[in-house]
TrEMBL record:
Its main location: membrane. It is a multi-pass membrane protein. GO terms for cellular component: membrane. InterPro entries: DoxX (IPR032808). It is found in: Membrane. It holds the Pfam family DoxX_2. The chain crosses the membrane at residues 6-25, 46-63, 69-86, 93-112. Keywords: Membrane, Transmembrane, Transmembrane helix. This is DoxX-like protein.
């Protein structure tokens, strides 16, 4: 059970770290976010929040309520990204990737709660 939790949490956290980095430093990602209609301040805000969420999810002794807020925030981000990419008529690959990430996020949350029982 711990292996599934840590593996899924590591995948989500790695995605959040990489995504945050690209939101701040990748010219193509920055242009893509602008093309979706989001302002620069929102891009920077998302990058910072993703960093915080990744760190919180990886810290074993972080308070449960803080972890739950992190899961909720990441879930909201993924839903928002899904809607934005569908509206923008982006590649089906991006949509499938977002759905897979949502599934991994849900698995991580389920197994976190199973470990606490």
């Amino acid at each position: 059970m711990k292996v599934i939790y840590w593996f899924s949490t590591a995948i989500i956290s790695a995605f959040l770290f990489l995504s945050s980095y690209s939101y701040l430093f990748s010219k193509s990602t920055i242009q893509g976010i602008r093309a979706l209609g989001f302002p620069d301040f929102f891009r920077i805000e998302l990058a910072v929040l993703k960093l915080i969420a990744a760190i919180v999810l990886l810290i074993p002794f972080a308070p449960l309520q803080l972890k739950e807020w992190s899961y909720a925030g990441v879930g909201l981000f993924l839903i928002t990204a899904l809607v934005a990419h569908i509206k923008h008529k982006d590649s089906i690959f991006i949509i499938i990737l977002l759905l897979i990430l949502m599934g991994i996020l849900i698995i991580s949350n389920i197994y976190m709660n199973k470990l606490l029982k």
